[in-house]
Amino acid sequence: MRIAFFGGTFDPPHRGHLAIARAAAERLQLDRVWFAPVGLQPLKQDSSAASFEDRMAMVQLAIAGDARFEASTIDAPRADGQPNYTIDTLTRMRSSLSPSDKPFCLVGADSFLILRHWYRAAELLFVCDFIVAGRPGFDLQQTAESLPIGVHVAGEPRLANGLTTLGIADGGRHSKLYILPDLQEDVSATEIREALAEGATEDRVLTTPVADYIRAHKLYVG
Questions:
Q1: Which domains does the chain have, with CATH numbers?
Q2: In the prediction, which pLDDT does 201 show?
Q3: What pLDDT score was predicted for residue 139?
Q4: What is the per-residue DSSP string for the chain?
Q5: Does the model's pTM come out above 0.70?
């Protein structure tokens, strides 16, 4: 199976997340996309407005109806209260799969642009191939400039099926970046929370079940 880990706060999960996951699943013929709310982000501690349990419940509601999507607790809060590091999560993911499975890590462009600041970033890119969802203005030069020190582009980019494939290397290690085209999904969870706090419904960017859950549980109220 071809399986992508899609981590994030999902606070709340919105239509932009779903658009990214659908595009990745279609372009790379993924069998599964694991939506995995993070317990505690190292670079954004105290950034989650909703509890892990609420975020997991909202993810389950948001992805219902697409058999390729699965809510995963693989990045749940750690028992020791320490931050969740993506390299540890991806390593656990690989160990849980069979040798014939192909893992990926799906990230948005904003996350990739700061990836060099992630814990053990240079190693992280070689745990599995990465899928990067483009955004307006995101290009190959920004991709190359965002690589951790020691990691470089290897070879020329290839374009097929509307998807750009970029080889990367670090010494004897090699991996690939798959760059999705600009999805025109400029949705900010922070802006959604701010709008909800002011009394807006935000049904345009939230699925109806998620919007109903937020109202029923009085999340993000000012």
A1: 2-186 (3.40.50.620)
A2: 63
A3: 82
A4: -EEEEEEE--SS--HHHHHHHHHHHHHTT-SEEEEEE-S--SSSTT--SS-HHHHHHHHHHHHTT-TTEEE--TTPPPTT-PPPPHHHHHHHHHHHS-TT-EEEEEEEHHHHHTGGGSTTHHHHTTTSEEEEE--TT--HHHHHHTSPTT-EE-S--EEETTEEEEEEEETTEEEEEEEEPP------HHHHHHHHHTT---TTTS-HHHHHHHHHTTTT--
A5: yes
